[in-house]
Amino acid sequence: MRMSRLFLAVWLLTAALIVGSAPWLPAQVGDPGKAMSRTAFIVTMLLPLATALLCSKAFVTWLGRVAPGQVKLPHRDYWMAEPRREATLARVGEHVAGLGVMVLLMSAGSHVVVLLDAHPDWPQPPQAVGWCLGALWLAGLASAVWRLHQAFPAPPTDEATPRRRPRRPGAHD
Fold first, then answer.
1. Contacts of 58 (CB under 8 A, 6+ apart)
2. Confidence (pTM)
């Protein structure tokens, strides 16, 4: 499955979770003294979903066309050059969608934690489950960043151009 499609599916499922679980939330969500109304909580949880759309492939492609200097990636001059720009933007969009999936999973996870805290009568998972899911989330995030970096290696060198030796620090010409 392409990351952009997975991103869309996870975005829709997270939005459905947040909106659909509203009846199960108490009228005041949070600790006493720091609580907010159910509606304010739902809006607060939906705001990260709206900003997560910045991780969509469509937004990355649009940004790369409108302001190509704003797309930061290794060896950008080579990869954003005109003959490769569209293919590069498509690949960047897929990778950024993977990062967006991680953001959405974090939002969904934090919402589930609030739901479980609001209902101590529901079956509660052991604390180790939360730690394992957090570790898996960090590993997934690190993997997504590493894959993005590996997708754009150094450009091929021109064999006709002789390589210069790097200067030693403190060397004078």
1. 93
2. 0.82
Distance of CA 11 to the CA centre of its chain: 11
Interior angle at CA 11, CA 15 and CA 39, nearest 5: 20
Q: What radius of gyration, in Å, describes the C-alpha atoms of the chain?
A: 22
Best CA proximity match to 108, nearest among 85, 82, 137, 86: 137
User: Given a cut of 60, is residue 45 above it in pLDDT?
Assistant: yes
Residue 143, Cα to own-chain centre: how many angstroms? 12
State the amino acid at position 66 in one-letter form: V
pLDDT in tens, 97-121: 999 999 999 999 999 999 999 999 9
Instruction: Report how far Cα 91 is from the mean position of its chain's Cα atoms.
Output: 15
Tokens of 47: 């705001």
